[in-house]
Amino acid sequence: MEALTMADRIAVLRDGVLQQVDTPQHLYDHPENVFVAGFIGSPAMNFFSGSITGTVDEMYADSGAVRLRLPQNETEQLGQESIGREVIFGVRPEDIHYPQYVPAGVNGQAVEAVVDVTELMGNEIFVYLIAGDDQNFIARVDPRSDLRPGDKVGIVFNADKIHIFDRVTEKMIATPKA
Questions:
Q1: What is the pLDDT, as a whole number, of residue 132?
Q2: Is residue 4 predicted with pLDDT exceeding 80?
Q3: What is the pLDDT of residue 2?
Q4: What confidence score (pLDDT) does residue 3 get?
Q5: In Å, what is the CA distance from 14 to each residue of 9, 33, 54, 171, 172?
Q6: Collapsing DSSP states into helix, strand and coil, what is residue 37?
């Protein structure tokens, strides 16, 4: 007997305009634009406005308060001509970790942030954070994480999971490893 699934393919529409059609997992992993990336997933993907900085050998997605070194597969997708390009970069909440509980194999990069609110969900904690003066974002962390509002933490982003979008078109220009 064939296994039944809720949906083999999903069509994402925005104001009646088709944005992307694909399997739920592919939409989640490889959204074609900012709208689809923010639509799929709960909590929604975190977005940061910034630019590509550095050199062709050491490229960063940089919003000022959040600066993440891009993995080689994304620097190759972007190329040297992208240095200085205005972008939106996104990271899903589950790809941001409390330092003590970073899973093995994660390309972790710490970002200084202040805990604003914590929300215990049972098997995980949603942590609402602020980096710099106004970069709000959400992390989905291990329930053993000991975080309290006001705590300063070097929260760890998985740099291998950064999604890069053009700031003007909002279309994906570099996608993370599968």
A1: 95
A2: no
A3: 65
A4: 65
A5: 17, 11, 35, 14, 16
A6: helix
pLDDT at 62 (0 to 100): 97
Phi, psi at residue 81, to the nearest 5°?
-65, -10
Element (H, E) at 24: helix 24-29
Higher pLDDT, 156 or 6: 156
Q: Is residue 176 a contact partner of residue 162, using CB atoms and an 8 Å limit? A: yes
37, 163 contact by CB (below 8 A): yes
For the record, the structure tokens of 13 come out as 């529409």
Q: Is the peptide bond before 99 cis (omega within 30 degrees of 0)?
A: no
Cis previous bond, 176, omega within 30: no
Helix ranges, 52-154 (H): 72-78
Across all residues in the chain, what is the average pLDDT? 94
Within 8 A by CB and 6+ apart from 41, the residues are 28, 92, 93
Q: How far from the centroid of its chain's Cα atoms is residue 75's Cα?
A: 16
Q: Tell me the CB-side half-sphere exposure of residue 82, using CA atoms within 13 A.
A: 25
Q: Hunting for tokens 């940061």 — which residue is that?
A: 48
Compute the average pLDDT of residues 124-135: 96
State the pTM of this model. 0.92
Q: Is 61 exposed, middle or buried (0-12, 13-18, 19+ CB in 10 A)?
A: buried
